[in-house]
Write a structure and sequence with these properties.
By secondary structure, this protein is an alpha+beta fold. It has a single domain (about 5-80), classed as Alpha-Beta Plaits. Helices cover about 35% and strands about 40% of the residues. It has 2 helices and 3 strands, in the order αββαβ. It has helices spanning about 5-15, 50-65, and strands at about 20-35, 35-45, 70-80. Strand 2, helix 2 and strand 3 (about 70-80) form a beta-alpha-beta unit. Helix 1 (about 5-15) packs antiparallel against helix 2 (about 50-65).
C-alpha cells in the first residue's frame, strides 16, 4: 500500500486553513483508492453570515483540488459551525 506524501497533507491543510471564513481544519485525511486520491476534511466555520458555511465548504474543496489536482478523484468536506 502506498502512503500519501505528508507534504501533500501539510499543503492541503495550509491551503484550506488559509481560506477566508474557515476558522480551523479539525481533521484532514487523504488516502489512495486505486490510482486516485480521496480527500476528506472537517472544517470549522463561523455561521455568520448565513451563506458562510456553504462558501467555506466550496472554497475548501477548491483548495483541495488545487493542491492535489492531478491525482484527486473525490473529496468531501464536513462543516462544524462555531456556536
Amino acid at each position: 500500500m502506498d502512503a500519501v506524501d505528508p507534504d501533500l497533507v501539510d499543503q492541503a491543510t495550509a491551503a484550506i486553513g488559509g481560506v477566508q471564513g474557515i476558522q480551523a481544519v479539525r481533521d484532514l485525511r487523504i488516502r489512495w483508492i486505486g490510482h486516485t486520491l480521496r480527500a476528506e476534511a472537517d472544517i470549522k466555520v463561523d455561521p455568520t453570515p448565513p451563506e458562510a458555511p456553504a462558501r467555506g465548504c466550496w472554497n475548501a474543496l477548491r483548495s483541495l483540488a488545487a493542491v492535489s489536482a492531478a491525482d484527486l478523484g473525490t473529496s468531501a468536506v464536513s462543516i462544524t459551525e462555531i456556536p
